[in-house]
Design brief:
The chain is mostly helical and 122 residues long. The chain has one domain: de novo design (two linked rop proteins), CATH 1.20.1440. It is built from five helices and no strands. The longest helix is centred in the middle third of the chain and has 28 residues. The protein is elongated. The relative contact order is 0.16. Pfam families: 23S_rRNA_IVP (PF05635). This is Four helix bundle protein. It comes from Cecembia calidifontis.
Amino acid sequence: MKSYKDLEIYNISLDLFFQTHIFSLKIPNYEKFELGSQLRRSSDSINSNIVEGYGRKRYKQDFIKFLVYSHSSNLETINHLFKISRLYPDLSEEANQLIECYDGLGIKIHNFLNYVDNNWRT
């Protein structure tokens, strides 16, 4: 692994960030700067924390800490998507598809976090 770009969780989270950003612009205008902004920021945080954690990979506990932040932001993103799916039924199908993707990403982040915790050499 030469770069964070080699991490599957990085690539999935980046792809989901772009999808989520586009999705967030479909909610009503009055919500774009409230719930939409929260959704965009939490989705971006998943990816950004993976990158920052990788940058600190020399320090195992820092790497783990940022992976935990990434996992937490993933859960936050799922929560925002759930709220949008309930508030705006016309967006619920797309929101639920994104939730499924984020659920899968959460599993992968969790598994990678366990790998780092048990196998990472500093």
